[in-house]
Amino acid sequence: MVEVMVSMVVVVVSMVIVVVSMVIVVVSMVIVVVSMVVVVVSMVVVVSMVIVVVSMVGGQYGDSGGQYGDSGDGLTCVMVEVVVSMVIVVVSMVEVMRQYGGGGVSMVIVVVSMVVVSMVVVVVSMVVVVVSMVVVVVSMVVVVSMVIVVVSMVIVVVSMVIVVSALRCGVSALRCSRSVHQSALWRSPLIPIVVEQTGRGERAYDIYSRLLRERIICVMGPIDDSVASLVIAQLLFLQSESNNKTIHMYINSPGGVVTAGLAIYDTMQYILNPISTWCVGQAASMGSLLLAAGTTGMRHSLPNARIMVHQPSGGARGQATDIAIQAEEIMKLKRQINRIYAKHTGQLLETIAGVMERDRYMSPIEAQDFGIIDRVLVHPPHPGQDEPRLVKKEPGAAPPAPPPSQEPSVTEQAPPGANLASSHKPEP
């Protein structure tokens, strides 16, 4: 942009110089015209003076030069005529002085002076004409040069505009292709680009768009409204392509906004496609709810992932009535989430309520026993095999026991600020 601004300034300056040069040309042309008029007037005066001198002689020698009129042609004839005319003028002036005496001498002096002055005026006018013509020529050269400069600068500016437009289009296209992945869903500043060979040549995809072609959706990072919008859009798109093919959802999320997570959950339940969920890294809070919301028998976790469930959290401020409204709303959300977990895990609602009282971290095996996932995978099936390799339970391993059952009345009567200890002990 700086280069374009500099080019525009240069173009403006060049245009000013061109205008000034045109003014100089116009002034020079006026001077030339005036000088030509002066030259013509001076020549008329000189000729008039000569005619006066000749007429004073009385025409005695008026025809003496005619004898030479046909003596030759071309330049020689002209030179002879000029010499004869000059002789006639000189003789006429001598005759005037002889006839009129002192008065004739004065008259001749006056006429000669007028002729000399007229000739000087003619010479000066001719010099002015020559100088004016030189100025005109120089001005025209300057104008032509400046026109060339202006055309060149216009070409440069147009080229710069084209380059800047091309760069903006490229950046816009790159932003459009990556806009989905520059939100909170994918925090990595570098998105790999995959280049594929097709029948129409090469085609480039960012890695997430390429995975979407394989019906794979990645839920990475905190879940908020923007992430929910992207995931919902991808789910609806894959359903529009086929409503019976499996959709694979890979989850690595610490949780997030409850309403955003429930929006994704409702869409998962709304579409007809079977959804296979996969936990990589962690699935905590709303992430674990989405993990459990996959189609039964198609919920997976990798062996070193962590799953965590807990009750919703939040805060409120304002008037007492407003705080009570917020507290009632979050209690409704808590009961609603408990029912969702109970539906997808097969656990009793009382068991879910007890586990959800505090953060409950689980290994993949514990989450499998709890009913959040169905299988723990080591790697997908090898070529020629039908089943993937699964993580087997250690002999004698018992499923995690839920924390002691707590009656709702006891919980509600607990003093404010009481911190009930979690029964979960983290694994070494």
Automatic annotation (TrEMBL):
GO terms for biological process: protein quality control for misfolded or incompletely synthesized proteins. Its EC number is 3.4.21.92. Residues 384-395 have a biased composition (Basic and acidic residues). The keyword Phosphoprotein does not apply. Pfam families: CLP_protease. The chain crosses the membrane at residues 6-27, 34-58, 78-96, 108-135, 141-167. This is ATP-dependent Clp protease proteolytic subunit.
